[in-house]
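Retro notes
What went well: the complex prediction finally ran end to end.
Inputs used:
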Amino acid sequence: MMNNDITILTSSLDELGIKYTDEQIDKLIKYFKMLIEKNKVLNLTAITDFQGVMIKHFVDSLSILKYIEIEDNSKVLDIGTGAGFPGIPLKIFLPEVEFLLMDSLNKRLNFILEVIDELKLEKISVMHGRAEDLAHDKEYRENFDFCFSRAVANLSTLSELCLGFVKKGGMFIPYKSALAEDEISNAGNAIKLMGGKFIKTEKFELPVLKEERDFVFIKKGINTPGKYPRKAGTPAKNPL
Ligand code: SAM
């Protein structure tokens, strides 16, 4: 029988020093059930066991809260959110922060809209499109205090996709698993051209599974030149 004991979630959050309420845990469990149900008809996640979703999706998404404080009314963007990671768990824990979840696959965003409705989440919206295109829309450009992105591209490509959205002084923080030694140095040029500055990496171990995870902290120093990001597909095909 599947072990659906929520203490795996709560004790992992305790271990990371992340505070939670019963309501937040209830919302995550509802989200889990919706994810598993929808995954039968739509490809949302390869991880479907209770422990896997709790740790690899939920705790992993929330773990950034150990390292940063996000003030109420800040604007947060999640690029390539897929089934809502890290955006939905973070939204549940940051009710007063403004979230935009972006993806180029509309079917996944439709699932997210169902989650938003069912969990009665506020101050959150979704946007369908490619980051390369949306970053040139003045509604989004240089408009976010924080930009997160998990499992979307290598650091160089991701920097081109994401940094145009971040306000001067804001932070772009990609979620990485076992960051390759050379990934940061290979991304140095893209980070600089996009107006970013590498600040630090934070390595940590995911509770229970003890898998390595890394956050890369990149600060937006100057506005991104108008020619970046290049047209859709180029940042992945031909990284800066
Ligand atoms: N972030 C989620 C997670 O960690 O589970 C989803 C990761 S999934 C492997 C990558 C997602 O990024 C997909 O949903 C895909 O549609 C989206 N994506 C890839 N390239 C993109 C782009 N250029 N602009 C917007 N979304 C993109």
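What we learned: The chain has one domain: 3-237.
What to try next: split runs per interface for comparison.
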